[in-house]
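Project outcomes to date are best conveyed with an example. Our students and postdoctoral researchers have been running inverse folding experiments weekly, and each run begins with a structure described purely in C-alpha cells. The record below, which covers 430 residues, was selected by the lab manager from last quarter's runs and is presented without edits.
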C-alpha cells in the first residue's frame, strides 16, 4: 500500500499540532509507524488520502454504531444545520432527546447534555462530591474516563499506550483524592470502604472496560460493587460513554441488571457529533445548577445539530433485532479470529461483549490491568500493520476496544477473516 499522502500530511501536521494529532492514540505510538489520514467513510468502509480502502473496526472509537454517513443521520444533520447551527438557548429537540434517554434508561430520571464524555464524567464526580459532601473518589486501575484531572491516575487508553502513569500538570493534591482498586476484585473495594468509605463520594467504573482493551466483568462483580456502594453511602457512577446504547439500548446497566445513582453517556448518543450526557437519580440531579448549587455549563451543550444526529441514530437503533445482529456478527468474527490464530499457532485471548472486542497477544486470561499488560504489544503492533496492509483498520493500540457497526455484513466479515489469516500466519512465521 502506498501511504505517501498520509506521510506528507503527518510531517506537515507535526509543525503546528502537538505530535501531529488532536488526540494522542491517533498518532500510532502504540503500534509504531505513522498514522493514516482519512478523507471519507461510507458504511463499513474508510478511504484514506492515498485512496486505500479499509474495513473500519474503530468507528471513531465507538460512536459510529450504524457505520459512516448513515443516510438518515446525514439528512438530520443537514436539515438541522439549515435551521441554524446553535442558539445558546433551549430547543424542543433537546427536550425530546432528554425524554428519550430517560424513557430508555430507567435509572436516569433527569439528564443534562454536554459535548464530550470528559465533560460528562468531570461533571458527574463534581455532582457526587457536591451531593455527598465527600472529597474522595474511587476509580479502577486501567479504566479511562476522559482527560479530566481526577481521572489521570492509573488510567487506561492513551495514558497506558504512551506509558504516562501520572500526567504532569495534575496537582498532587488533586490526584491524591483519587483512590484506585483493581478491576474485578470486590475484596479490595470491601477493604477500602471499611477503612475510608465515609470519605468517598463515588465509585466510577466502566462496566465493561474498553480502555485496557476489552475486559469482561466477572459474574456478580458489578452487582456486588453496587451493593457495597449502597452500604457505604458512596454514589455508584456507571461510565457508559462506550457501552451506552451499544451493548443494549439500555446500555450495560440493562445487560447486568444495575441501577446506578449516576450514569455518563457519550459516543453512540451523538451519532458521530460532539454530544454526551450525565444523568441519574432525581434527587441527585436536582442539585445541578440552576436547580441546585453544583455548577456546570456549556456554550454548545445540547447543540441542535448534534442533538439531531443523536436523535436520528437512536431512532435507527430502535429497529428490532439490531443488538442481536451486532452480537451475532461479533460472535462470528470472534470464532473466526480464534480459529485463524489457532491455525497459525499464535496464542491469543479474545475478549468480547456484543460489538466490542479485543484480541490480546497473550495466553490469558485477561481480566484486569495487570493481566492486560502481559499482552505482547510489539506483536499486536505487527498484527495491526499487517491487517492495515490487508485493508482492515484496527485500533492503533492493544489497550483499546475494536467496535463493530451495523454496516458490517458478510462480505466485510469474510474480508476481515481473510486478512486475519494472512496476518496471523505472518506472525506465526516471524
Ligand atoms: N469515558 C469512557 C469510558 C471513554 O471511553 C471515554 C473516551 N474514550 C471517555 C469517558 C471520554 O470521552 P471523550 O473522549 O468524549 O471526552
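After processing, the design step wrote out the following sequence:
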Amino acid at each position: 500500500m502506498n501511504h505517501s499522502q498520509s506521510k506528507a500530511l503527518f510531517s506537515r501536521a507535526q509543525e503546528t499540532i502537538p505530535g501531529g494529532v488532536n488526540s494522542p492514540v491517533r498518532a500510532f505510538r502504540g503500534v509504531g509507524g505513522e498514522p493514516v489520514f482519512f478523507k471519507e467513510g461510507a458504511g463499513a468502509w474508510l478511504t484514506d488520502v492515498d485512496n486505500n480502502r479499509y474495513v473500519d473496526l474503530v468507528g471513531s472509537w465507538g460512536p459510529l454504531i450504524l457505520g459512516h454517513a448513515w443516510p438518515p443521520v446525514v439528512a438530520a444533520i443537514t436539515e438541522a444545520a439549515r435551521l441554524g447551527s446553535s442558539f445558546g438557548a433551549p430547543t424542543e429537540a433537546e427536550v425530546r432527546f432528554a425524554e428519550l434517554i430517560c424513557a430508555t434508561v430507567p435509572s436516569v430520571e433527569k439528564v443534562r447534555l454536554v459535548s464530550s464524555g470528559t465533560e460528562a464524567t468531570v461533571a458527574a464526580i463534581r455532582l457526587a462530591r457536591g451531593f455527598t459532601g465527600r472529597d474522595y473518589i474511587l476509580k479502577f486501575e486501567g479504566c479511562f474516563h476522559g482527560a479530566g484531572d481526577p481521572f489521570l491516575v492509573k488510567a487506561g487508553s492513551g495514558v497506558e499506550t504512551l506509558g504516562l502513569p501520572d500526567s504532569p500538570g495534575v496537582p498532587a493534591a488533586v490526584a491524591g483524592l483519587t483512590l484506585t482498586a483493581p478491576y474485578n476484585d470486590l475484596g479490595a473495594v470491601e477493604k477500602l470502604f471499611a477503612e475510608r468509605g465515609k470519605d468517598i463520594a463515588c465509585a466510577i467504573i466502566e462496566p465493561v472496560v474498553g480502555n485496557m482493551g476489552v475486559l469482561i466483568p466477572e459474574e456478580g462483580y458489578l452487582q456486588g460493587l453496587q451493593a457495597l456502594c449502597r452500604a457505604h453511602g458512596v454514589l455508584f457512577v456507571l461510565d457508559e460513554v462506550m457501552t451506552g446504547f451499544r451493548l443494549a439500548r439500555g446500555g450495560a446497566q440493562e445487560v447486568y441488571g444495575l441501577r446506578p445513582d449516576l450514569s455518563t453517556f457519550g459516543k453512540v448518543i451523538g451519532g458521530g457529533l460532539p454530544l454526551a450526557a450525565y444523568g441519574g437519580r432525581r434527587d441527585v440531579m436536582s442539585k445541578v445548577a440552576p436547580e441546585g448549587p453544583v455548577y456546570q455549563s456549556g456554550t454548545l451543550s445540547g447543540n441542535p445539530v448534534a442533538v439531531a444526529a443523536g436523535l436520528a441514530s437512536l431512532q435507527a437503533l430502535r429497529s428490532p433485532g439490531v443488538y442481536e445482529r451486532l452480537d451475532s456478527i461479533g460472535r462470528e468474527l470472534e470464532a473466526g479470529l480464534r480459529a485463524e490464530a489457532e491455525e497459525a499457532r499464535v496464542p491469543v485471548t479474545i475478549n468480547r461483549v456484543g460489538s466490542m472486542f479485543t484480541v490480546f497477544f497473550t495466553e490469558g486470561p485477561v481480566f484486569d490491568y495487570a493481566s492486560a499488560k502481559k499482552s505482547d504489544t510489539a506483536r499486536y503492533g505487527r498484527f495491526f500493520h499487517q491487517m492495515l496492509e490487508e485493508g482492515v483498520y484496527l485500533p492503533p493500540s492493544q489497550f483499546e476496544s475494536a467496535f463493530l457497526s451495523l454496516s458490517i455484513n458478510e462480505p466485510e466479515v469474510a474480508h476481515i477473516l481473510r486478512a486475519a489469516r494472512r496476518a496471523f500466519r505472518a506472525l506465526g512465521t516471524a
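The two ends are 20 Å apart (CA to CA). The CA atoms of residues 240 and 265 lie 5 Å apart. The training component of this project remains on track.
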